[in-house]
Amino acid sequence: EQLAHVIDGAQRLNAIISDILLLSKALGSPEQQKFTETPMDELLDDGLVGQKQPARERNVQILLRPLESPFAILCDPHLIRQALARLIANAVKFSPPGGTVEVWAHRRADGSALISVKNQGPGLTQTKLNECLKPFVQEDMTYARPAEGLGLGLPIAKSICEAHGGELLVQTAPGRGLLAAICLPARLTVRQSGAA
Asked: Do β-strands 100-107 and 113-119 pair in parallel, antiparallel, or remain unpaired?
């Protein structure tokens, strides 16, 4: 039993270090990033990796909407996948049992791209949202809080968006869930061959 606690503690510490290193890379110099043209459907599929089991454990359904038309993004795919994974993990973590997390992407009229994640969780006030966009802050930071973590999910996603010249858009209100969207500029979107 003690060995199980040690292993669990080591895994948590590893996750914390990984998050801090990821945040450091997102905040680092552009030379650290490796931009390649990556199909959006691959980014969406990869962002779901590792998220389905926690969702099942919480009795939360993840609904991935199909793309209306295929397109690609010129990005650091590792960073964008990590940003999306953090948004999905947060959405699952703060969804009620029996809730649904929706994930979808599309190009807007101005050519920019949005990768959106929506949950049916408790939502946040604007003041709490502003706090949660800072590293190491969660809505509930007490020891008895229902969701574990260091409060790095939204700050990591925000930093990754900004490293790509984009932004993290968030809509929320108490009792109305949360919609977070990775917004990437039009100069990074690429229409795939065969797309309408």
From this structure: antiparallel
pLDDT of the chain, 196 residues: tens digit per residue: 777 767 766 766 666 556 666 566 655 655 667 889 999 999 999 999 889 999 999 999 999 999 999 999 999 998 899 899 999 999 999 999 999 999 999 999 999 999 999 999 999 888 888 888 776 555 554 444 445 555 678 888 998 899 899 999 999 999 999 999 999 999 999 876 554 4
The model's pTM:
0.80
| Placement of tokens 């199980």 in the chain | 4
Residue 99's contacts (CB-CB under 8 Å, 6 or more residues apart) are 60, 61, 119, 120, 121
Task: Answer yes or no: are the C-beta atoms of 119 and 177 closer than 8 Å.
Answer: yes
